Amino acid sequence: MLTIAHLTSAHPRRDTRIFIKQCQSLAHHGHDVTLVVADGKGDEVVGAVRVSDVGAPGGRIGRMLLTTRRVLRRALELDADVYHLHDPELIPIGLRLKRLGKAVVFDAHEDLPLQLLSKPYLTPAIRGLVARTVGAYQRYACARFDGVVTAMWIVTAKFIDVNPNTVDVNNFPLPGEFAPDVPWSARRPQACYVGSVSAMRGIGELVQAAHLLKSPARITVAGSFSEPEHEAALRALPGWARLDRPGHLDRAGVAAVMEQAMVGLLTLHPQPNYCESLPVKLFEYMAAGIPVISSDVPLWRGIVQSSQCGVCVDPFDPAAIAAAIDYFVLNPQIAQRMGQNGRRAILEQYNWQTEAGKLLRFYQDLEARLATKGKRAAAARG
Fold first, then answer.
1. Domains, in order of start, for the chain
2. In this structure, are strands 103-108 and 263-266 parallel, antiparallel, or unpaired?
3. What 3-state DSSP class applies to 351?
4. Among 182, 251, 214, residue whose Cα is nearest residue 12
5. Model confidence over 77-108: pLDDT tens digits?
6. To which H or E segment does residue 293 belong?
7. pTM over 0.85
8. What gap in Å lies between CA 366 and CA 363, rounded to an integer?
9. Helix (H) / strand (E) containing 116
10. Backbone angles phi and psi of 261, in degrees to 5
């Protein structure tokens, strides 16, 4: 078994992909797992996973300049067999660890160059240059790492040519987190959106759609606004009165919102980084047994249509979004059937158990390669 240190300078200690899924799955199968975080909440042991805190960062610049150094220092203290990096800003640390003879794995949670192309704080002329530069550096580093784990197969295709030890471990849900057997008669005439809230994620159109609803439906928006000015402008619109705003929720709170709703909303704008991603909330809605109203993005459309678990709409058309919400609220039998179809697809295909098997096989192969490398080094010394 391996001693594995998962490193993050940006994610919370209870991050679903990092802690709940990857760390716990690896620890459950006998690996010695430590998660290094930077949140200032101190060290703890959760189940079989140790959490080691290097202290809260002082803003984004402090995180990238100072926190990453503290993460490196803690990583060296742990002296692990493998270091699993979860943030692009830790790539220089990975290269440093490689120079010290350590095994390093990079986890590409998203397509970083595509994400940079959508950053509003970068001018269009700069975005392309930054994206190309960052992409080239990322490929350079990953060619030297011992493996790459990605969050979806599209991203895997962009790494496999630079590192053959690349595997997609999709961020599919744990079906047991959700209770799809809540009686449909107990559900409210409610649509829900769960996740970060911003203009590009379609909050403006949702507020406008709320004003156009003909059914008694309300829209629950569970998440934190990232643009206070935009939120203030939306509060002045008449549709705001039909929104419920519980704010950021923990995992139990997310499940509770979905258990009460009749439909889940995924009407993000078709930005490049969204179009080539697999939104976690799509699969969580399916796991919760509720139908999905999705942006008409080809990748998402294929999943929704093949699973027969919802409808796709133009995310820029509030009237179409409102009509879709009304359709499910006023036709509960159809909503229930599509929700059941989505839950079935989760149980049969889009679940973490399947992905955990891929992660474990990746580490089994890495362990075998490290053992072979160790034997060759011992033979050379002898």
1. 3-172+352-381 (3.40.50.2000), 175-348 (3.40.50.2000)
2. unpaired
3. coil
4. 251
5. 999 999 999 999 999 999 999 999 999 999 99
6. strand 292-295
7. yes
8. 5
9. helix 112-116
10. -85, 165
